[in-house]
């Protein structure tokens, strides 16, 4: 009995503990190879095929967002929040590294333009949390423009940032006069709304062209562009879903008014 007492006795289930570290280490290279194969396959596609895949992915993502997000206003709030995060990345670069190399002042100027337009028609429609978020992003964007144009102008490469702003402003202005959302406000608000959306859609084009001209991407600039890409997509999804919802609402109101009109005519008979 004393001999038995010297050995530890376990009253557990008797199962030998197993570990999945070996299996997990085997799965990781397989996943990495799968991602590499997908990336190689995508790089071999033509430009038209890549654009088609991007459009299909965007449409699928908007469909998922429309049917999974209960309150679509969260999309706009998320877009503004990510936009602010991208501006914080720029602020960190400008204040810490003391350089604006790789940044396009033209993109910031287009961003300030559509934010100012949105603040104007937002103030006319209703001052709410969206107006507050736009105000913060507008002030920060003006500060970024000041840093690029004046404080750190010695590090700004004006030669590479050669995009003409009227390539975006003039077509957006012309298009907004004919294609605008049918909201329950006057024509000025409708045109301003459409103009802001069109300029916002192409505001990152100067930055992308500057990156292409420079043949290199700095880490902070890449993070900023990635954040802006997500922000622009969420904003675009918000406007598309909202316009679609307003069309359904207007159709419903039109049906109700027509039914009331028919009932009144029957009452007169």
TrEMBL record:
GO terms for molecular function: ER retention sequence binding. Signal peptide: none annotated. The chain crosses the membrane at residues 51-68, 74-92, 136-152, 164-185, 191-210, 222-241. GO terms for biological process: protein retention in ER lumen; protein transport; vesicle-mediated transport. Pfam families: ER_lumen_recept. One of its GO terms (cellular component) is endoplasmic reticulum membrane. Its main location: endoplasmic reticulum. It is found in: Endoplasmic reticulum membrane. Keywords: Endoplasmic reticulum, ER-Golgi transport, Membrane, Protein transport, Receptor, Transmembrane, Transmembrane helix, Transport. It is a multi-pass membrane protein. The keyword Transmembrane applies. Residues 1-30 are annotated as: Disordered. The keyword Transport applies. InterPro entries: ER_ret_rcpt. Belongs to the ERD2 family. This is ER lumen protein-retaining receptor C28H8.4 isoform X2. The gene is LOC111437265.
